[in-house]
User: Fold this.
Amino acid sequence: MSSRTLKFVGVAPFAYSYSLVPGRYLLCRSHAAQQAFKVNCKTAVLGYLGFPGFIAAPYYVVRNLAELRRNHALNVNAMARSVFVAIVAPLGLVAVLFVLVVCWASAP
Assistant:
């Protein structure tokens, strides 16, 4: 297996602005997919907190997946895990919380 240099970007909100923390890694394909998943999980936890988190966080998750694809390290499993954990789950949680708040506010 050949190793390549990959750059993954994590998003961390700080005072309503985002500081991008790029990391350069020299990894083989399987380890590159694992590292991208770790970075995407951190983005899922912290990336939606600031403004405009709902735009920036999914963008950087997709950007990290594109970096894997560009280096021929993207597989279906890595893509599905990252998309679910970093995009679908946080947005689903926000939708559930929104519905709960609306139901609570409209209760007599």
